[in-house]
Protein: DUF445 domain-containing protein
Amino acid sequence: MTAFTPADEERRRGVRRMKLTATGLLLFVAVVYVLAKWASSAGAGAWTDYVAAAAEAGMVGALADWFAVTALFRHPLGLPIPHTAIIPTKKDQLGVSLGEFVGENFLSHDVVRQRLRAVGIGSRLGAWLAEPEHADRVTAELATALRGALTVLRDSAVQAVVGEAITRRADAQEIAPGIGKMLERVVADGGHRRVVDLVVARAHDWLVLHRTDVMGAVEGGAPGWTPRFVDRKVGERVYKELLRFVTEMRDMPSHPARGALDRFLTDFASDLQSDTDTRARVERLKGEVLGRGEVQDLIASTWTAVRSMIVAAAEDERSELRLRVRAALLSLGARMAGETKVQQKVDGWVEGAAVHVVTTYRTEITSLITDTVAGWDAEHTTRKIEAHIGRDLQFIRINGTVVGSLAGLLIYAVSRGLGA
Structure:
C-alpha cells in the first residue's frame, strides 16, 4: 500500500477518539458496578442489585467486543492467543480469497453479459455520439492519435514493409491476363482513341517545329557516294510524306493506320490473356521493373507523401478527412440511437469482446489482486485498514456495552422474578 495520506491521518485521529469513547464507557459501567455494590452492602435497597447486574453484564460485553475488535488487527495485550491478529497473519490468504471472490462474482461469463446488457451501451453511445460537440471531440482525439502514430513510426521501417508487401503481392499474382482484359475493354470502348489523337497531334506539331532536324537526320543517313542535292531531295520527300501521313492520321478518324492500330491492340490484348510466350515476357519484365532501385525509391517517396498528406489533414480542423470522419460519427451515432438492430449489433460486439477478455485473462486479473495484496507490508496494511474501518468497529464496543447492560438487567430481573 502507499504511504499514509492526510486523509488517512484524519481517519486515524477519528479512530483514536472513538477508542477513548468506548473505553470511557467501559470505565463508566465499571464505576457504576463498584458504586452499586457499595450501595447494596450499605443497605441502600434492592434496586442496587439490578444496577450492579446491568453494569456487570455491560463490562462483560464491552470486554468481549474489545477482544474481538482488537483480535482483528493485533494480539490482545500482546499475548499470542490463537486466531488473533487476523489481518496481519492472514493477509496473503485474504488476498487469495478476495481474488477468488472477484473472479467468481464479477468476472464470470454470465455476470459480464448481464451487466453490459442492462447498461445498453449501444443506445447510450449512439445518443452521446449524435451530439455535434461529442463528435467533434472524438474526431479531434482520433486525429491526435493518428498524428501521433504516424509521427512515431519510422519511415524506413514502414517503407521496407510496404515495399516488401507490394513486391510479394506482385510476384505472387500474374499481371498479364489482367492487363489484357483491361486493354480489351479499353479498345472495345474506344478509350484509346483519345490517346492516339493526342499522340498524332503532338507528333504533327513536333514535325512542324523540327523540319530541319528531320531532314538533317535523313541526309546524314544517306550513303557517302550520293550527291548532296539528291540527299536533300530525299530528305525533303521523306519529311513531306511523314508530315502528310501524320496530318491525315490526325484529321481522319477512319484512317487505315488507326484501324491497323486497333487490330494490333486487340491482338495484343488477346495474347496477354492466352499466349504463353507473351505472358512469360510480361512476367519477366515485371520482375525486372520491380527489382529496379528507382521503383523502390518511388514506393518510399509515395509513403512519405501519403504520410505528410494524412498528418496535414489530421491537423487541419476543416480538412476533408476530418469533416468526413465527423459526418460518419454523427451518422453512426444517429443510427445507434434510433435503430434497434444497430444497437443490438453494437451490444453484441461489446459483450463478446468483454467476455473474451474476462474469460481469457481472468486468471491474470485475479492474480494481480492476489500478488498486490501479498506485496503489502503486514503492519502498514493493518494500520491502513484500521484507519478506514476502525471507527465503525469501535461502535461495536459501545453497542456491546449497552446491549450487554440491557441483557444483564433483563436476565437478572427474570431470574429474580422466577426465584420469587
